[in-house]
Structures are given as structure tokens and as C-alpha cells.
Amino acid sequence: MPFVVYVFTLSAFALGLAEFVPIGLTQSVAHGLGVSAHQSGLVTTFYALGAAISAPVLSAVTAGWPRKRAMLATVFLFSLGSLAAALAPNLAVLVGARLVAGVGHGLFLAVASDTAAQLAGPQKAGRAIAAVFGGFTLAMAVGVPLSTWLGQVLSWRLALGLIAVFGVVGLAGLAWGMPDAAASPSRPAAAVSVQLRAMFHPVLLMAALVTVLGYAGSFTVFTYIALLLTQVTGLNAGAVSLFMLAFGVSAVIGNAFGGRFTDWLGVDRASGAVIAAIAVLALGIWMFASSSLAMAVLVALLGMVTFGSVPALQARLLSIADRHAPGARGVASGLNIAGFNAGIAAGSFLGAITLGWLDVTATGLAGAVVSLLGWLLLWGSTRVLLARAKPIMAG
């Protein structure tokens, strides 16, 4: 694997912390700012929205930029937003700062995953993408449990401040470790208008929607997992940190296995398998929420399949772009990153609605339904929509 791919992994570690640390600090943030638990869930929602909005649009706009410049700009923006979030005096400022940080997040992962796949070649594309997202899962395994504990015992602001510190470390790693010619621009600057039109290719949008629904199913329940574990399962804050650790370690395993699973089984079958697994596990959480033993197994497996789905779904959309929208790989990568983050945003929002109308246990049932819709869309689009799509761009 090219060395520069592991430089991407370093930066993805910081982004993984930013995406998921607030999930374990939902109650701490709510208490610190004097808001409700479902209001503090907006901290996760708006970060994901920033990433979802920025990934496809900025991927197209910066298509003619050198890849190193694009990555440095986005990690700088991410670090600045993360620092502002740690210092935010109220929920509105915190949510706005997280939106800004999320904008940097979305473009970086879109560029990094596409660049890594191109550098590694088609036979190792799944593993290259898994290596990039390995930083995410390493953050889940190590950074999120420690930050959750730190935020609960000392201060949630300190935990968010550390995210900014890791962002700066990633920025330095890119500036030093990424050669200027590691990957050429995806398209000439003159092609920006064409790239923007590619964002609305129906086949690419349909494929990205599969990602949205699959991921939304997982994060409908996981965004409020700390609340569920304390209120329903009956665990204390220390035990919640251990459950977050189990989720993170399993995410590392799932991400690594997911890349090989994708290369071996193929993008469509691998994607269908992991989305179906998310639906089954979310349903299990709804059914067995009161059992600490069952929840330990279910939460760990949810981490494994949620992040095992990343290489499969990302490689699937890049493959679809090669067949149906040649020349739009950068936009396709951005659309799928948008899909992941739109799924997180939609899931956390759906979880908040569920929490407001029913109870926290029902988030598992809602998540299972959403993931099932994603699986059905994948099944139908693979057989019908992809067969009818026509290329819209010349290579």
C-alpha cells in the first residue's frame, strides 16, 4: 500500500474523533449547556450535515485543485471549527462550529478515499479505502472511549478541544508526508460545471441513497446508545465507556475485514450483506435492551458491521461511476461520503423524534426499519436502475 495512504489514515483519526466523541457525551453536553438530551443530539446532527453538504459540492468545485492543497485546506477548516466548538458558550454557537468542522470533514474523506483507491489500483481498491477509514475506526476503538471517559469525569469541553489538537497533528502530517504529486487533480478546472451536473446523475444519487438509509438505520439507535444503556440497561457511566470501547474495537475489525470482504465478494453482494446485518442488529437492540449481556454482544457487532459497510458502499459507488458516469469518480466519492454523513444526520434526527414520541428503546426498531428500506433499495436498483442508466460524461 502506498505510504501516503497511511498519512490519510492519520488525518481520518482526527475526523473520527469529531464525528463520534459527542455521541458518548450527549448527557454531559446537555447538562453543561442546560438543554435536553435530544437537543444536544444536534451536535452530532449538524456536524454530519456539514460533511454531507460539502462532500459532493466541494469535490466538484475543487476538482482541478492539486489533491494536497484540497486536503490541507479542509483539515485546516476542520481544526478551526473544532476549536470553536470546544469554546462555544451556548448550543447555537456549538452547533454552528460543528457545522463548519463538518464541512472540512466531508471534502477530505471524499478526496482521500478516491485518491487512495486510484493509487492502490482496482484489485486493492477496497483495502485502500479501508486503510483510509481505518483512522476512523482507530478513533472509535481508542479515542472515543477515552474521550467519553474524560468528558464525563473532567469536562466535555476538554474532550472537544483534544479533537482540535489531533486535527492540527493531522494537518502537519499532510504538509510533511504527502508529496505534491501524490495524485493529480481529478479533472481540469474547466470541467467543474460538468462535475456539478454529475451530482444529479440518477444512478449515482440512487446509490448514495442506499448508503444514507443503511447508515441511518445504525445511527438512529447508536446516537442515543449511551442514554439507552444508562436508562434501560441500567449501566453506569464507566460501563458505558467500556461499551463504547467494544464498539470501537469491533469497528476496527469490521473495517479491516470489510475491505477484504468487498474485494472477495463483490461490491453489490458485500453491500447487501452488511446493510441486512445492520437491520437485524438494530432489531435485536430493540428486543433485548434490558439485558446487559445481550447488549454487549449487539453493540460490538453493530460497530463491526457499521464500519464493515464503509469499504463496500464506497467501492460500490466508485464502481458505478466508472460504468455509468465516466470521469465523475471524485463527485461519486463525495456523494457517498455525503451519504454516510446524511445517514448519520438523518439517523440522529430520527432517533430524536423517536425519543420525543416514544422511548429510547424504540430507536432500535426505527433503525431496523430504515436499514431494511436501504436493503430493498439496493436490491431493486441493482436489478433495474443500474441496467437502465446511461453515461452522462466522456472519460
Topology summary:
Blueprint lengths: L2 H22 L1 H8 L3 H4 L1 H20 L5 H20 L4 H30 L4 H29 L2 H22 L14 H7 L3 H21 L2 H7 L5 H29 L1 H21 L4 H33 L4 H29 L4 H27 L7
Helix pairs in contact: 1-4, 1-6, 1-7, 1-8, 4-6, 4-9, 4-15, 5-6, 5-8, 6-7, 6-15, 7-8, 7-12, 7-14, 10-13, 10-14, 10-15, 10-16, 12-13, 12-14, 13-14, 13-16, 14-15, 15-16
The tally of domains stands at 1
Q: Which spans have pLDDT < 50 for at least 5 consecutive residues?
A: 186-190, 391-395
Structural class: mainly alpha
Q: Architecture, according to CATH? A: Up-down Bundle
Straight-line distance between termini: 26 Å
Q: Mind telling me the CATH class? A: Mainly Alpha
* CATH-level-4 superfamily name: MFS general substrate transporter like domains
The helix/strand series, from N terminus to C terminus, equals HHHHHHHHHHHHHHHH
Percentage of residues in DSSP E strands: under 5%
From the spread of the alpha carbons, the general shape counts as globular
- The CATH topology name reads Growth Hormone, Chain: A
Q: What number is the mean pLDDT?
A: 80
Strand tally, please?
0
Radius of gyration (CA) equals 19 Å
**Helicity range:** over 70%
Supply the number of helical segments. Answer: 16
Sheet with most strands: none
Assembly type of the chains comes to single chain
Concise synopsis of the structure shown:
This protein is mainly α. The protein has 16 helices and no strands.
